[in-house]
């Protein structure tokens, strides 16, 4: 049976006219199963302050698929969207990440939320209940949304977000600068943190345009009271330049790759307990 071979390609086209999309449907069902049976995983990547101290971690979704290997969010998220599973996925991710982080010492846990469910009435309240149920101090929780998702948030959801903020939960604008909004709209976005997308990071400090853009964004964050985290920091040169420009915190391979929970505990959390 071609669809069971796991490539998603049509091997014997005339036996099953719609084989390619059948494969997709299978994968969607498998995702539904994985969600219901804890078959998904989260990897954790450190957030680091200007002194090199680890102040938190971002939870990043992975799907260890038995035949297809480790599937990344760029495969899993669109599949979840097609299967109408985004809201459930967000709940699973938040519940799982908080259950993990509540066992750590006082560092932050950043969790990505999908745009569409956050527009649904009740979803943010549900997420708020998950924060309560986890027993974690809400001040340790960062919820990441894209600027497009934030700007499209209906009024009712803005209220729900306000409640979360009052409880101490921080919101971060993910991939800042890649949306269609103008920088001036930062003022209107109910978030405390912006995460500068890694496409803005200059390859070298001779890249004057990139430097000028980052400088402008950092200045804007100062003016609007947002904390600014740089994503995708890979080299010391980038870190030094970002420090010079006044970035508040970093995330990237220079400081640590995303790793499974057990490895994060062994390599990062153990070190925190010792300091
Ligand atoms: P993001 O939230 O902007 O996450 C940062 C992405 O950059 C991650 O990709 C991370 O592995 C990658 N990255 C980290 N450091 C570096 C670096 O130094 N260099 C480079 N080149 N890349 C780096 P990943 O894990 O593939 O996630 C991609 C996107 O998928 C995330 O972007 C986020 O938007 C989304 N995503 C991840 N996990 C979840 C989740 O649990 N739920 C939802 N709704 N979306 C998620
Ligand atoms: Mg993120
Ligand atoms: Mg990001
Ligand atoms: Mg990004």
UniProtKB/TrEMBL annotation:
Residues 24-272 form the EAL domain. The chain holds residues 328 to 602 of 602 of the full protein. It comes from Actinopolyspora mzabensis. This is PAS domain S-box-containing protein/diguanylate cyclase (GGDEF) domain-containing protein.
């Amino acid at each position: 049976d071609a669809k069971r071979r796991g490539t998603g390609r049509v091997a014997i086209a005339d036996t099953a006219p719609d084989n390619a999309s059948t494969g997709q449907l299978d994968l969607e069902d498998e995702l539904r199963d994985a969600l219901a049976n804890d078959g998904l995983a989260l990897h954790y990547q450190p957030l680091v302050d200007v002194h090199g101290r680890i102040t938190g971690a971002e939870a990043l979704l992975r799907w260890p698929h038995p035949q297809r290997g480790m599937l990344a969010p760029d495969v899993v998220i669109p599949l979840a969207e097609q299967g109408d599973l985004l809201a459930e996925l967000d709940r699973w991710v938040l519940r799982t990440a908080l259950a993990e982080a509540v066992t750590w010492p006082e560092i932050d846990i950043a969790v990505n939320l999908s745009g569409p469910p956050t527009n649904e009435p009740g979803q943010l309240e549900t997420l708020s209940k998950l924060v309560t149920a986890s027993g974690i101090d809400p001040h340790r929780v960062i919820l990441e949304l894209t600027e497009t998702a934030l700007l499209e948030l209906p009024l009712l959801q803005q209220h729900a977000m306000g409640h979360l903020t009052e409880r101490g939960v921080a919101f971060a604008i993910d991939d800042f600068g890649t949306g269609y909004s103008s920088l001036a709209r930062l003022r209107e976005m109910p978030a405390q943190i912006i995460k500068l997308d890694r496409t803005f990071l200059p390859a070298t400090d001779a890249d004057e345009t990139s430097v000028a853009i980052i400088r402008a964004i950092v200045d804007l964050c100062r003016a609007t009271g947002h904390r600014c985290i740089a994503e995708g920091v890979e080299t010391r040169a980038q870190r030094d330049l970002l420090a010079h420009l006044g970035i508040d915190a970093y995330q990237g391979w220079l400081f640590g790759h995303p790793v499974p929970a057990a490895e994060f505990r062994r390599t990062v959390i153990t070190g925190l307990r010792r300091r």
